[in-house]
Design a protein that fits this description.
The chain is α/β, with parallel strands linked by helices. 34% of the residues lie in helices and 19% in strands. Helix 4 links the parallel strand 10 and strand 11. Helix 3 packs across helix 4 and helix 4 packs parallel to helix 12.
Length: 477
């Protein structure tokens, strides 16, 4: 087996010297490990170089609409974090494939078609962003550092170059989408594209609007977790009232005066009440803070309280499957660093180590150790600006998400102060209430997804598909 390791190292040298000379590359993927037969949709993966000297190499998955790709909308999708690979959106939320639901037995995970994919009516580009996320990488140490603003610049440059290499899609309606932390950059990127169109940047991008799920938007968002907890019966009315009066409506730890003993005591009682609650979806078994999309200050628990064992954990039973699948899929996905992973794979086989040993070192679904600086904390002004320009927007929230509660999202939507044109009402699917919605004169639609968590399509895929299909087709929910 050692001779095989040496052979792959030699092959890697030749592959790296040939592939890394190209700053842009793309190729169709017809087969994926774990999926039986050829893919029933068009999948393309590739890299696009952006930034100074194109030292940032962004990796993407592009899936053509399964209906009418010549005319259907094109959407750029970003996952949250920052640092969560767009494979999260592809495999766990809105893409056309997902892992099978059988119990994992140590072999290659099985992939199956997802009947509720948003690619049924839109072409979607799933982009690994910022640099250091997923398979996107930097060619220099300097390029490995980024900020919110650089992320947005990179995304805009990516889209212009992508449309230049895919001119057949440049006239299609274009939307941006994302969830969780992506609520910040998606709004800013939409504004960048709009400004670029106005000054005559080429190619002209046929921008129509944006879609945001459970989006981070403004600093006061986590204050609403207290209100959510009370509304869900997780804390008593008495504690809620006491918290409000003693903390004066501010529950973020960094803004609380430690001399306010009553507030601190009430917050301690609050933390005890919510201990054991899975904040991504309060209805699900508690799995600790492992692989959460977003960590908010008031929601952190002591280390010794971060994990509880459970036999029904979405994190363990679903998310971790991707770590077993990725090493087998990288050749098919045209990953440039595939040789590094192959070496780790062989070493793990030689040493009888687990298959995730090397992959965790090189690839993480959510990389929370990025060289990344948060520079923007409030994008409400961007929403206001885009509203004034008449862009459409769909803002939706799983109503059982405690990470970014739907009350906080509705609060900033209301704060934009546009008149209501379709008052608060239920929206239905198959004769059942699927959530509640309200629409405004700025062409913004807010919707809750009943029973959804963080993020909603993971928990209610069929309902979210119906919601998206109606909205993208200009129909009322």
């Amino acid at each position: 087996m050692y001779w095989l390791l040496i052979f792959i190292v030699i092959i890697c040298f030749h592959v790296s010297t040939s592939t890394l000379t190209s700053n842009s590359s793309a190729g169709r993927v017809k087969y994926l490990p774990g999926f039986q037969g050829p893919l029933p949709f068009y999948l393309e993966t590739g890299y696009v170089g952006v930034g100074e000297n194109e030292d940032v190499q962004l990796f993407y998955y592009f899936i053509q609409s399964e209906s009418d790709p010549d005319n259907d909308p094109v959407m750029l999708w970003l996952s949250g974090g920052p640092g969560c690979s767009s494979i999260s959106g592809l495999l766990f939320e809105i893409g056309p494939i997902e892992f099978g639901d059988e119990h994992y037995n140590g072999s290659l995970p099985t992939l199956v078609s997802r009947p509720n994919s948003w690619t049924k009516m839109a072409s979607i580009i799933f982009l690994d962003l910022p640099v250091g996320t997923g398979f996107s990488y930097a060619r220099t140490a300097r390029a490995s550092y980024s900020t919110d603003n650089q992320l947005c610049d990179h995304a805009y440059e990516f889209m212009r170059k992508w449309f230049e290499s895919h001119p057949e899609f440049v006239s299609n309606p274009f939307y941006l989408g994302g969830d969780s932390y992506a609520g910040l950059p998606v709004t800013m990127i939409t504004s960048l594209i709009s400004d670029g169109n106005e000054v005559g940047n080429k190619p002209y991008i046929n921008l129509k609007g944006y879609v945001l799920g459970n989006p981070l938007t403004f600093p006061e968002e986590d204050n609403y977790a207290i209100r959510f907890a009370n509304g869900m019966g997780l804390i008593s009315d008495e504690l809620y009232k006491s918290l409000f009066h003693t903390c004066h409506g501010e529950y973020r730890l960094e803004y609380i005066n430690t001399s306010n003993i009553e507030c601190c005591q009430n917050l301690e009682l609050y933390q005890k009440c919510i201990y054991g609650i899975q904040r991504a979806n309060v209805l699900e078994p508690y799995c600790g803070d492992h692989e959460q999309f977003l960590f908010l200050p008031t929601q952190k628990l002591p280390k010794e309280q971060q994990y509880l064992s459970t036999s029904e954990c979405r994190v363990i039973d679903t998310y971790e499957l991707v770590y077993y699948w990725i090493p087998e899929a990288m050749l098919a996905l045209h990953i440039r660093k595939v040789c590094i992973f192959l070496v780790y794979r062989i070493i793990s086989l030689l040493t009888h180590a687990t298959t995730t040993q090397g992959t965790v070192t090189e690839w993480k679904r959510c990389n929370h150790n990025l060289n990344y600086t948060i520079t923007v904390y409030d994008v409400k002004p961007y929403h206001q600006k885009l509203s004034m320009k008449g862009y459409r927007s769909l803002i939706y929230s799983g109503d059982h998400d405690m990470i970014i509660p739907h009350q906080s999202t509705l609060a900033w939507v209301k704060d934009l102060n546009y008149s209501v044109i379709d008052q608060w009402r239920s929206w239905k699917h198959n004769g059942q209430i699927a959530g509640y919605t309200e629409s405004y004169s700025n062409m913004m639609t807010f919707a809750t997804v009943k029973g959804g968590g963080h993020t909603a399509p993971e928990y209610k895929p069929e309902e979210c598909l119906v919601m998206f299909k109606r909205w993208i087709s200009y129909q009322p929910l």
